């Protein structure tokens, strides 16, 4: 069943409320938004609805490390608090949400499938059949399919068909991008949400969500990479011709810079985090040897903090940032999509706000780099307009992009689709009918 129908005209698209949850290593953020159909004249490419955020709640994350839930009770507590705050602000109760997924060793693979059309017009059922054939190849033991997306269709020998509905041919082929993740981390994330009496409507890979929020239309079309640097993980996505073609994640993020500083300067994690935000930079400056920064050593109650030159700090930050960027560069080159990205890289996520990071990325990735903020959503408070909220905003944009996505029948972690007719069923129904 295609999750969302075609775009149709404005009258057939309906308004509704959507709730998303971003469970990160540093913060848990919940957003409730109203989606209203755009007037047909104002359709952004691929976007059928206007998004107005009516409730937002965010909390310091607990029980999550490198994107993986490591303590169910604490994770549940943080999720509950942020959802409560968003519900109160929006003035409604939430029962199911769209959630993002960073952990589980995300892996992108390409598959191709072909079915016989026998010379008639391709319709929804044929598309469903060919997508199903492509998705079947990806179901491996202990791995869950998070996304199976058509990158392009082909009719007979003609490649590059964007939407084959209504076209005539003998063979309908599809090239698919299938993104899988380990089952266990997905189940544990889902458990921590279920324990807060909420259900997971859909899981979306973090790199996909961040790219949808931070890349502009031309970048999506011409090809670009989006690097989302979070607290515990960094994800990378590649978009080409408007499609999400590759995703990857590494378990290194801004927290590792803080840890390195805490160890290298033997100070507490809180103090190291503050130093990183106030004085940290990935770029050596000319006055760094003369600038002194004061540090309170661990366990030392003395009133006299240590004075160290800023250059010591910059060296620690730079070593970790360079290593992370080199890792990303190698992953990008190995992915085979280095050419698709061309010269365009967008950095987003909370850790992308580190001073000097774009310059370091330009040097190591050898590409143009800009910092991306979440785009195209109204009603965000000033504090939530920064790059740290890209993944959450991307989850709000995602349902409008999912019209062709195919899902294996068993649903997320085999637990889904029970008790149809309940609240969850109503929300899925709205999502299916509205897009």
Automatic annotation (TrEMBL):
Residues 18-214 form the SHS2 domain. It is a peripheral membrane protein. One of its GO terms (cellular component) is cytoplasmic side of plasma membrane. It is found in: Cell inner membrane. GO terms for biological process: FtsZ-dependent cytokinesis. Pfam families: FtsA, SHS2_FTSA. Transmembrane segments: none annotated. InterPro entries: ATPase_NBD, Cell_div_FtsA, FtsA/MreB, SHS2_FtsA. It comes from the Bacteria. The keyword Mitochondrion does not apply. Keywords: Cell cycle, Cell division, Cell inner membrane, Cell membrane, Membrane. Coiled coil: none annotated. Gene3D superfamilies: 3.30.420.40. SMART domains: FtsA. Self-interacts. Interacts with FtsZ. Cell division protein that is involved in the assembly of the Z ring. May serve as a membrane anchor for the Z ring. Belongs to the FtsA/MreB family. This is Cell division protein FtsA. The gene is ftsA.
